[in-house]
Amino acid sequence: MTTTTTAPTSTTVLDATGVTMRFGGLTAVRDVDLKVNTGEIVGLIGPNGAGKTTFFNCLTGLYVPTEGKVAYKGTVLPPKPHLVTQAGIARTFQNIRLFANMTVLENVLVGRHTRTKEGLWSALLRLPGFKKAEDESRARAMELLEFTGLAAKADHLARNLPYGEQRKLEIARALASEPGLLLLDEPTAGMNPQETRAAEEIIFAIRDKGIAVLVIEHDIRFIMNLCDRVAVLVQGEKIVEGPAEVVQADERVIAAYLGTPFEGEPGTAEVAAVEAAEAQSTTEGDDK
Fold first, then answer.
1. Cα dihedral 166, 170, 175, 180 in deg (nearest 10)
2. Cβ-contact 275, 49 below 8 angstroms
3. Sequence-ordered alpha helix ranges (H) in the chain
């Protein structure tokens, strides 16, 4: 059994307070508080339609919360994804978003752009400063590929990687921005047991490098073995948070996963309406 430990000198990296997200008159996330500390892996679980990915999108600037605030290391984050990345938060997505026709190495280099300070003219004129920055980025990208076990495939096209390795590549690209907090949205989705175990070891290794991790996952066994703390969302509300053994035994969590109604639970019609509003918002965002 794998055990996890929290660094004794941990400080708060992420502080989300009262986060609420409404789509018109529908509430997808309601008054959620969550903290993540350095040296910690925190899990976020809940049934389908619970608002987990919507909450992630509020943390990373894809959505502007209707109410509440999100702070990273004490500073309230601007509602712009690239500024959130610059601040020190990186993420992966539930649906893989690689550059399929670029090489594995090139995908990771894309993730370095927020940490490269050379400007347009330096790049166009191939000035010494640009060449040095380019060499440093390439070296760092290769380190991350080595870390995730992909170094031997650096020159392969991303589209030709097996599914599990594409997931690893997404993690490597996210790490290329040198985050203090990594958000993983269903990192083991579609993986076989061997790939899942490999992903677990990578996440532990990320934590051991001092990077805090917040992870959404439907694989309950995976989450309970991985995380120091687990928070549970049900219909947009956080119903419980604590160590794995406490969360697993909570009757509200059991009811939510077994489909047993509990007091105050919204009906299926309301759930479907929220999911439809989220999908519409995502489509409108992609069209802009």
1. -130
2. yes
3. 52-59, 81-87, 104-110, 120-124, 128-147, 163-175, 193-208, 220-226, 244-249, 251-258, 268-287
Structure tokens at 65: 């919360």
Q: What is the gyration radius of the CA atoms in the chain, in angstroms?
A: 19
At 216, the amino acid letter reads I
Banded model confidence at residue 130, pLDDT cuts 50, 70, 90: low
- pTM, full prediction: 0.80
Q: Answer whether 196's CB lies under 8 Å from 219's CB.
A: yes
Distance CA 279, CA 85 (A): 24
Range with lowest mean pLDDT among 96-105, 149-158, 188-197, 267-276: 267-276
- Average pLDDT over every residue of 33-53: 93
12-23, strands of its sheet edge to edge: 26-37, 12-23, 67-72, 75-76
CB 171, CB 91: distance < 8 Å: no
Q: Do the beta carbons of residue 81 and residue 55 sit within 8 Å?
A: no
Tell me the CA distances in angstroms from 138 to 24, 134, 147, 157, 278, one per residue in order.
45, 6, 14, 17, 38
Q: How far apart are CA 175 and CA 207, in angstroms?
A: 12
Q: What is the average pLDDT across 274-280? A: 63
User: Distance between CA atoms of 143 and 139, rounded to whole angstroms?
Assistant: 6
* Cross-strand pairs, 212: 181
Total residues found in the chain within this entry = 288
